[in-house]
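The pair is quoted verbatim as follows:
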Amino acid sequence: MQTIIEPFRIKSVEPIYFNNEAERKLILEKAFYNPFLIHSNDVLIDLLTDSGTSAMSSNQWAGIMQGDESYAGSPSFFHFEKTIQDITGMPLVIPTHQGRASEKILFSILGGKGKYFVSNTLFDTTRANIEFSGAEGVDLVCEEGKHPTVAAAFKGNMDTEALKNFIAEKGAANIPLCIITVTNNSGGGQPVSMENIKAVKKICAENNIPLFIDACRFAENAYFIKLREAGYSDKSIPEIVQELFSYADGCTMSAKKDAFANIGGFLALRNEALAQQCRNLLIMTEGFPTYGGLAGRDLEAIAIGLEEVMDEHYLQYRIRSIEYLTNKLIAAGVPVMQPAGGHAVYLVADEFLPHIPIDQYPGQALVAELYVHGGIRSVEIGSLMFGKYDANGKLIPAALELVRLAVPRRVYTQSHIDYVAEVIIEVFNNRNKIQGLTIVEEAPALRHFTAKLKPVATDLHDEQLKKAEAALPVL
């Protein structure tokens, strides 16, 4: 059989509210060309994020009804705790209201000026919490991961030689943590191989640097290992997951991703002294250690979701769905991250819109056009999200200029995805009409969430387009 069917039936639905292109253009203008400022009822297909947007199962909803709301010592916590202990092998489990709360606690304790946190690639809130502590986050992705349209099996890997060199340069004492993000979200949802995790662990152990896993999409990464890495095709997903976590000293997770939950996260640790420090801060900022900012019903939903996500029929459908959309775009000539990642399709914005300079945010311009043309909400992962300024106020661009279309789990059907492909291809075929954007207002950190933008002047756009066309090779 060639067709991969959804491994579920739909029991409940919610309406999509339709609007037209003229209405969406006005909505976008009022939202200052920032998808985060658009009301969700004005979105047809919402691919802004896969975080907290999944459809929960009937078993999860049943678990919500069974959730115990005791302030301390709830049985829902002990179900949550045991599930995470069984999956990760880590004995110390600390619930938080979402992943960035885990990061805030961890980096508040381990961070500080003069310290460096190294990673394959840090996502936005992780980097922001590191920098807020005064420390610096450093990305050391492998060479293959720097080339979006070049296919490779494990483009999320960390560059182990670069890691060794960085430790030698900065000193192990100044590196409190090494973090591997699985899958590598900012790098195109690309997986990390078990071989790479083991190699990084070896380097960290030799330098007495703890290794943590950012485990938001651990099951998707495990499925890629099963598909692509020698020696794992006959192993079950729980076996691969347990081995993956066995190399780590701890992990953070937003349960809003691979646990299907609408809210929640956790820290899992092996070090009792660090766990106690984290619990002390948790009590001040999140709640008592057996609920950590979550209701008992959320703890139940997360525990059930963590088991459900390791079902291979689900993972086959999930990975194949992303591949399906990616392949449609490749066939139409659209520049897209290759190979397909685990949770999202990533458009290569600077190749999609070569006439727009980086300092006019081609990714954000593409995000805006996808919304106007088709009502699709996506997110820029490029120089608006990760760009910084030098001493003269000039933009330091991000390493990659991407637009992420993150597909919520168990929410959209194939016809929705076919519609998304059609919209992207139509926008691509009319890409020369798209104008760049300039920032009107921005926050000092995580600016992409609240930034206000406006289009560049039309005459400037026309001039840039002429220059871009003149630079094209003559056929």
About this structure: Residues 319 and 453 are 34 Å apart (CA to CA). The chain has a mean pLDDT of 94. Residues 21-50+312-470 form a domain with the Aspartate Aminotransferase, domain 1 fold (CATH 3.90.1150.10). The radius of gyration is 22 Å.
